[in-house]
Amino acid sequence: MAGSGVFEGIKEGEVFKYYTDGEWKNSTSGKSVAIINPTTRTTQYKVQACTQEEVNKVIESSKIAQKQWAKTPLWKRAELLHKAAAILKEHKAPIAECLVKEIAKPAKDSVTEVVRSGDLISYCAEEGVRILGEGKFLVSDSFPGNERTKYCLTSKIPLGVVLAIPPFNYPVNLAVSKIGPALIAGNSLVLKPPTQGAVACLHMVHCFHLAGFPKGLISCVTGKGSEIGDFLTMHPGVNCISFTGGDTGIAISKKAGMVPLQMELGGKDACIVLEDADLDLAAANIIKGGFSYSGQRCTAVKVVLVMESVADTLVEKVNAKLAKLKVGPPEEDCDITPVVSESSANFIEGLAKDAKTKGATFCQEYKREGNLIWPVLLDHVRPDMRIAWEEPFGPIIPVIRINSVEEGIHHCNASNFGLQGCVFTKDINKAILISDAMETGTVQINSAPARGPDHFPFQGLKDSGIGSQGITNSINMMTKVKSTVINLPTPSYTMG
């Protein structure tokens, strides 16, 4: 059970503690935040509601710990990360159990997330040693008018305190994708987990604790966004913010000030299907891309733009596969599980109702029980429907029939999002030209949009984000170039 064995010390009574200075502590606020199980819609866990004063102390100790950590040899940092990765994988079962209960992620996908996170940490350690182990050497006479009297050595140095804010849908994986690069680069890290997913994050942080990282280097503060959210993101002691989530990111970027930002926000990932596409492949990927984890992924297929001549066949194939999806609780490894909250379910329902009143064809009957929404494909969706543009974050996919490739590209580019997209065709020339024309951070050819593998660059254009992720990009983003210039005396005679 979660909280037992090696995780014994991370909770007291009913409430999980927060982590700072290498210790698990209770907040002085005496208050807690409830985490509602999306399946039962009852309180599953409680976490500390930290105060602003506690945040100040956390950042202060992070600063002190970071100064020492920056002097720690690179191989030593890597060694500790490898250790944390092994411990995380060893304890995958209790962490996965938290994911099932907090975010209704199917059991097998929850285990996969933890294992993938361990792999990410290990890769980070290796990549960090490679990237940070070398610098540059420049000589002055390569620029006009200069003698060979200056040598410039450049290296990458840490930024300081990195604030990591992951989202509910991949709380462990998207936390370690920030923690790993930050730590190998010599930074300290403050984690503010999402409320749904906080307990899984606390368990994950305990694995870093068990690995023996220095005190104060990693902290995990829980609490109400209204109380400590802005306080954290605008804190003068924070030197970098890595955020994954929705609209909140736009607000953070406006308030954050002069710190490097790494943001991955929403998406309305378009799937363009041409006449010559392998329709069985396209249908399988629309199902996988649109309905895995009930569509609660920023890289989910969120709109299908299909050529009219093959639309009927594609819709038929998608519907046949959709009928086989298992709907129910995450404990039973169902394909479609309850969405994360009642407000999320209400939002999805609002999009469905709007589409219905405006004449979309519902290929399945719309059905909802509590937070559980049965998967539905909407055909004949038009641009005047909200579902054509808004991100549902649920098991509902709109199909828009198009008469030309240009029409599909235009719809994709008219969106304020630009995270990923995909195109299905057997013509590689067309695929590359369409990819060039799509204003998205990544285009997948003949496959559904996806975040991984985790060392691939991952970025969004427009409202989908700032900067680029992926292990290598994150390490580079969480460091700064430092130059040391050696000035040689001007030779008064020719040597040699």
From TrEMBL:
It comes from the Eukaryota. GO terms for molecular function: glyceraldehyde-3-phosphate dehydrogenase (NADP+) (non-phosphorylating) activity; lactaldehyde dehydrogenase (NAD+) activity. It is found in: Cytoplasm. It catalyses: D-glyceraldehyde 3-phosphate + NADP(+) + H2O = (2R)-3-phosphoglycerate + NADPH + 2 H(+). One of its GO terms (cellular component) is cytoplasm. The keyword Oxidoreductase applies. CDD domains: ALDH_F11_NP-GAPDH. InterPro entries: Ald_DH/histidinol_DH, Ald_DH_C, Ald_DH_CS_CYS, Ald_DH_CS_GLU, Ald_DH_N, Aldehyde_DH_dom, ALDH-related_metabolic_enz. Residues 24-483 form the Aldehyde dehydrogenase domain. The active site is at 264. Keywords: Cytoplasm, NADP, Oxidoreductase. Its EC number is 1.2.1.9. It is an enzyme of class 1 (oxidoreductase). Belongs to the aldehyde dehydrogenase family. This is NADP-dependent glyceraldehyde-3-phosphate dehydrogenase. It comes from Helianthus annuus. The gene is GAPN.
